[in-house]
Design brief:
about 140 residues; mainly beta; globular; binds thymidine-5'-diphosphate
Length: about 140
Protein backbone atom coordinates (compact mmCIF):
# COMPACT_ATOMS: atom_id res chain seq x y z
CA UNK A 1 0.00 0.00 0.00
CA UNK A 2 1.23 3.52 -0.77
CA UNK A 3 2.20 5.53 2.29
CA UNK A 4 0.11 8.47 1.07
CA UNK A 5 -2.99 6.28 1.55
CA UNK A 6 -1.99 5.50 5.14
CA UNK A 7 -1.98 9.00 6.61
CA UNK A 8 -3.79 12.29 6.17
CA UNK A 9 -3.36 15.88 7.31
CA UNK A 10 -6.61 17.32 8.65
CA UNK A 11 -7.42 20.98 9.26
CA UNK A 12 -9.90 21.39 12.07
CA UNK A 13 -12.55 24.03 12.15
CA UNK A 14 -11.58 27.00 14.31
CA UNK A 15 -14.61 28.36 16.14
CA UNK A 16 -12.55 31.17 17.64
CA UNK A 17 -13.72 34.72 18.10
CA UNK A 18 -12.48 37.82 19.89
CA UNK A 19 -12.36 35.81 23.14
CA UNK A 20 -9.76 33.40 21.77
CA UNK A 21 -9.50 30.21 19.74
CA UNK A 22 -11.62 27.10 20.01
CA UNK A 23 -10.82 24.04 17.95
CA UNK A 24 -13.32 21.20 17.75
CA UNK A 25 -12.50 17.58 16.93
CA UNK A 26 -15.44 15.20 16.70
CA UNK A 27 -15.12 11.46 16.37
CA UNK A 28 -17.00 9.56 13.67
CA UNK A 29 -17.46 12.74 11.68
CA UNK A 30 -15.53 14.26 8.82
CA UNK A 31 -12.76 15.28 11.24
CA UNK A 32 -11.78 11.77 12.18
CA UNK A 33 -13.29 8.56 10.92
CA UNK A 34 -13.19 6.67 14.21
CA UNK A 35 -14.92 6.67 17.58
CA UNK A 36 -12.49 8.05 20.18
CA UNK A 37 -11.76 5.39 22.84
CA UNK A 38 -8.56 6.75 24.39
CA UNK A 39 -6.74 10.04 24.72
CA UNK A 40 -3.18 10.60 25.88
CA UNK A 41 -0.79 13.49 25.73
CA UNK A 42 2.96 13.80 25.81
CA UNK A 43 4.78 16.84 27.15
CA UNK A 44 8.20 17.49 28.66
CA UNK A 45 10.00 15.70 25.82
CA UNK A 46 12.72 17.72 24.10
CA UNK A 47 14.71 17.79 20.88
CA UNK A 48 17.03 14.98 22.03
CA UNK A 49 14.22 12.47 22.49
CA UNK A 50 12.76 10.01 19.99
CA UNK A 51 9.43 8.52 21.03
CA UNK A 52 7.16 6.02 19.38
CA UNK A 53 9.33 3.68 17.31
CA UNK A 54 6.44 1.31 17.00
CA UNK A 55 3.50 0.36 14.81
CA UNK A 56 0.02 -0.69 15.91
CA UNK A 57 -1.77 -3.64 14.42
CA UNK A 58 -5.25 -2.27 15.12
CA UNK A 59 -5.29 1.29 16.43
CA UNK A 60 -5.91 4.39 14.35
CA UNK A 61 -4.49 7.64 15.70
CA UNK A 62 -5.04 11.34 15.39
CA UNK A 63 -2.13 13.48 16.59
CA UNK A 64 -2.30 17.20 17.30
CA UNK A 65 0.40 19.35 18.83
CA UNK A 66 -1.72 21.77 20.84
CA UNK A 67 1.12 23.68 22.51
CA UNK A 68 4.19 23.83 20.31
CA UNK A 69 5.67 21.59 17.66
CA UNK A 70 7.19 18.21 16.94
CA UNK A 71 7.92 16.05 13.94
CA UNK A 72 6.59 12.62 13.09
CA UNK A 73 8.54 10.31 10.80
CA UNK A 74 6.37 7.70 9.10
CA UNK A 75 7.63 4.53 7.49
CA UNK A 76 5.61 1.78 5.85
CA UNK A 77 8.56 -0.44 5.05
CA UNK A 78 9.12 0.97 1.58
CA UNK A 79 8.44 4.72 1.83
CA UNK A 80 9.02 7.38 4.47
CA UNK A 81 7.52 10.81 5.12
CA UNK A 82 8.06 13.50 7.74
CA UNK A 83 5.16 15.59 9.01
CA UNK A 84 5.71 18.63 11.22
CA UNK A 85 2.87 19.24 13.66
CA UNK A 86 3.06 22.92 14.54
CA UNK A 87 -0.51 24.27 14.78
CA UNK A 88 -3.31 23.42 17.21
CA UNK A 89 -5.70 23.28 14.25
CA UNK A 90 -3.69 20.67 12.36
CA UNK A 91 -4.14 16.95 12.84
CA UNK A 92 -2.26 13.93 11.55
CA UNK A 93 -4.48 10.89 11.00
CA UNK A 94 -2.65 7.56 10.95
CA UNK A 95 -3.96 4.19 9.81
CA UNK A 96 -2.90 1.04 11.62
CA UNK A 97 0.39 -0.64 10.65
CA UNK A 98 2.43 2.51 10.03
CA UNK A 99 5.80 2.69 11.81
CA UNK A 100 6.03 6.06 13.56
CA UNK A 101 8.63 8.08 15.42
CA UNK A 102 7.94 11.36 17.18
CA UNK A 103 10.91 13.68 17.70
CA UNK A 104 12.21 17.26 17.70
CA UNK A 105 9.81 18.37 20.43
CA UNK A 106 9.81 22.11 21.18
CA UNK A 107 9.91 23.16 24.87
CA UNK A 108 6.22 24.11 24.72
CA UNK A 109 5.17 20.93 22.90
CA UNK A 110 2.03 19.15 24.09
CA UNK A 111 1.32 16.28 21.74
CA UNK A 112 -2.30 15.19 22.05
CA UNK A 113 -3.11 11.75 20.66
CA UNK A 114 -6.64 10.47 20.09
CA UNK A 115 -7.00 6.74 19.56
CA UNK A 116 -9.62 4.38 18.16
CA UNK A 117 -8.83 1.64 20.72
CA UNK A 118 -8.12 1.17 24.40
CA UNK A 119 -4.52 0.47 25.30
CA UNK A 120 -3.40 -3.07 24.61
CA UNK A 121 0.36 -3.61 24.66
CA UNK A 122 -0.10 -6.77 22.55
CA UNK A 123 -1.17 -4.82 19.49
CA UNK A 124 2.04 -2.77 19.50
CA UNK A 125 4.94 -3.91 17.32
CA UNK A 126 8.09 -2.45 18.86
CA UNK A 127 10.68 -4.32 16.82
CA UNK A 128 11.27 -2.95 13.32
CA UNK A 129 12.34 -6.31 11.87
CA UNK A 130 9.15 -7.88 13.22
CA UNK A 131 7.17 -5.00 11.69
CA UNK A 132 8.75 -5.65 8.28
CA UNK A 133 7.97 -9.38 8.54
CA UNK A 134 4.32 -8.66 9.38
CA UNK A 135 3.67 -6.15 6.62
CA UNK A 136 5.29 -8.44 4.06
CA UNK A 137 3.17 -11.33 5.34
CA UNK A 138 0.03 -9.20 4.94
CA UNK A 139 0.98 -8.19 1.39
CA UNK A 140 1.07 -4.49 2.25
P1 LIG B 1 5.18 4.28 24.90
O1 LIG B 1 4.35 3.48 23.95
O2 LIG B 1 6.63 3.88 25.02
O3 LIG B 1 5.09 5.82 24.55
P2 LIG B 1 5.42 6.53 23.14
O4 LIG B 1 4.44 6.02 22.15
O5 LIG B 1 5.22 7.98 23.38
O6 LIG B 1 6.84 6.23 22.80
O7 LIG B 1 4.48 4.22 26.32
C1 LIG B 1 5.17 4.47 27.53
C2 LIG B 1 4.54 3.63 28.65
O8 LIG B 1 3.20 4.00 28.87
C3 LIG B 1 4.54 2.15 28.32
O9 LIG B 1 4.85 1.44 29.51
C4 LIG B 1 3.12 1.84 27.95
C5 LIG B 1 2.33 2.88 28.72
N1 LIG B 1 1.11 3.33 28.04
C6 LIG B 1 -0.13 2.97 28.57
O10 LIG B 1 -0.23 2.27 29.58
N2 LIG B 1 -1.26 3.41 27.93
C7 LIG B 1 -1.19 4.17 26.80
O11 LIG B 1 -2.26 4.55 26.25
C8 LIG B 1 0.09 4.52 26.27
C9 LIG B 1 0.20 5.36 25.02
C10 LIG B 1 1.20 4.08 26.92
Amino acid sequence: MKLEQQYRIIDFKDMGDERGNLVVIEGEQMDIPFDIKRVFYIYGSDDTVVRGQHANRETEFLMVNVGGSNKVRLNNGSETAVVELNRPGMGLYLSPMVWKEMYDFSPDSVLLVLCSRHYDGKEYIRDFEEYLREIRGKGF
